Every structure is written in C-alpha cells, then in structure tokens.
Amino acid sequence: MSPSPRTGGCLCGRVRYRADAAPLAVRTCWCRLCQYLGGGGATVNVCFPADAVTITGTLRWHGSTADSGNAMRRGFCPDCGTPVVSNAEQRPHLTFLRAGTLDDPADAAPEATIWASAAPAWAAIDPDIPCHAGQLPPVA
Fold this sequence. Notes:
There is one protein chain. The chain has one helix at about 30-35, and strands at about 5-10, 15-20, 25-30, 45-50, 55, 60-65, 70-75, 85-90, 95-100, 110-115. By secondary structure, it is mostly beta strands. The strands form 2 sheets. Strands 6-7-8-9-4-3-10 form a 7-stranded mixed sheet. The longest helix has 6 residues, at about 30-35.
C-alpha cells in the first residue's frame, strides 16, 4: 500500500475523509449485513486507528448488531446513499472505511476473507488470501 495519507469519499462528494495512518487490516467480509451494504456482494473494509481518520460532511448513521455480535454503527451519505464508514461500539479506537470509497481503491487489497460461511454459493472468493468461516480476532 502507498504511504499515508489516504483520502476518499462518497459518490456525490459531500462526504470526504482523510486517513493519516497505515491500515491495520484490509478484509473482505461476507457476513449477511455486509451483503446488504454491498448490494449482494461482500464489502472490503479498511481498518484504521480512529484518531487518524478525519471525516468532513454530514453522515447519517444506522445501528445494528453484526453477525459477530458486535454493536455496529454504519455511516452513509444522506444525499447519495454511499456506505462510507463503520464503527464497532466495543472498539471505539478503530474506524472501518469502505475500500470502494477510497480515491484509489487499488490501494486497499484485501489480506483475508471473513464470514465465508455466510457467502452465497456463487460468491467469488479469492483463493490466494486466507479465508475464514467467521470473524477473526480484533486487529487492535
């Protein structure tokens, strides 16, 4: 991955962010909630230290419980609907940005796939990276 900072934002440009740290992890997630966020596919989530991420613009938040049991808050642009960020209430020191919102999404290649047990039979799962049936331990 290229050196920080990493920048990105939503489709309409009203929400922007900057991450001034190296990612702690990049994972493809096939949990059922991520399938909703990904429009049927997996999401690719880039984990950063929360204190390294600055978000400008207004997000709308939705709370839910992930398959892992974690209470999650997911932020999306209220204008264009782009899912931008997730935060686990149990890990307020971490922020998860959607790789597709990076200005350079090629800058966030997944290192692992999680929740493969929830993936549909047609899912394309990269055989070249570690694949896990469920959640991995926290990165930090």
